[in-house]
Hints:
The chain is mostly helical and 491 residues long. The chain contains 19 helices and two strands.
Amino acid sequence: MNTALPAINLYAVMPQIVLVSAATVVLIIGLFERFRKGIPYLSLLLLAVAGVFALNQLGRGPIAFSDTSPMMVMDDFSLVATLVFIAGAVLTVLISISYVEARSIDRGEYYALLIYAVSGMSMMAASTDLFTFFLGLEVLSISLYVLIGFEQRDAGSNEGALKYFLLGAFASGFILYGMALLYGASGSTEYEAIARTLGEERSDAVNLLLLGGLGLLLVGIGFKISMVPFHAWTPDVYQGAPTPVAAFLSTGSKAAAFVVLIRLLGSVFPGLQMEWIPLISVLAVLTIGVGNIVALVQTNLKRLLAYSSIAHAGYMLLPLMAVSPDSQDGSASIVFYLIVYTAMNLGAFGVLAVLAARGIPCATLDDLAGLGSRRPLVAAVMAVVMFSLAGIPPTAGFMAKFYLFSALVYGGYVELAVIGLLFSGVSLYYYLRVVVCMYMRPAAEVPAEPAGRLSYSGMTALCLSALAILAVGVFPSELLQLAERAVMTLP
């Protein structure tokens, strides 16, 4: 009897180890009142260390956690995703510093939970087994449940946390049931074993289990990405959550779910394309339509951005049709879009967080009246973000949509590209409405606001987001090459 233990390569999961260790250190130090002011800066430093480890592994080829049952593999795809998550967390911390102080919620566990959430996202991206995927998902979800309800004295925050918790638990149940069906069909939870089962001759019963398992996984993941009809929680949760948390939720959580979708549909379930492509196509069009049409009538800025987020989830669902082992265009366009979307949405929510931290009203469109003259730099950042979300050149949003629709056209889905373009035209109305309010509505309509400077950390995050949007819009090739390089490592 062979009792030798499998070889474990801790270097393969070093970014996750650093992230979990960093979150634990921040949590412990947060217990001491005298160190509390330095916690956000310590969090930034530790996130940077995790980013350095991920960068150091980039380009070295897939590194498996175990030689017998990989469960997690750090390839360029998961490493690029991890770097995106870390960058999003860094911007979130920067816009949080003044916000949590103003709201008296600057406790150490806030930053610790942000880092724990990033570790869960990274685990999801590196997973090659359904169990590690689910473990990462739950680490992410539990962290977000607490972060959304962090403003305990705010009824909206409590309501948002309760809704996200109840619906999140419901979605987790679907994922677990789907995992059980896939295990019943293949005898394993490993992605590779499930893919092998799909490549073999199988009975109708096994085929039914595989289809049912995939369908239930799509329901659970659809909740995380705000896919119609699993989107109803999104506007209420975004509106109730602390603004930096809403920014993090709208970017990191969505990016992690899409990374999992790319790996599952492109590497595990290409054999069922004839079944899932029509379903994803219909859901993508519905998601784009509902998000854009309902956003037209929103006056609350958080709800407007929530429906905008739903619409962008629909755009990113479209190239999944072109995801296959033979072509990487669809996967690369989604990765590129996710990176750009992270900068755009963090910039938009960052503007609201920085203004709210200073006590400047910014809940509705009317509150932005005259912002161009009152706070010209903040208004300029918001204008750049809105132009980019709308897909107007020369911003990164334009290039992201260009590559996304190009992947659809080259994949033979011209009609879906046309539908996406038409709804992009619809979105111009509500994005440009924000710019009109800032620059073409007189400031006299707005009550006097508190004097003084906005936070340096928050303004740094806003400027970084705006510069990234403009730089990628003018010079997109480097980022696109990085996205293409990342998806080339997928099996």
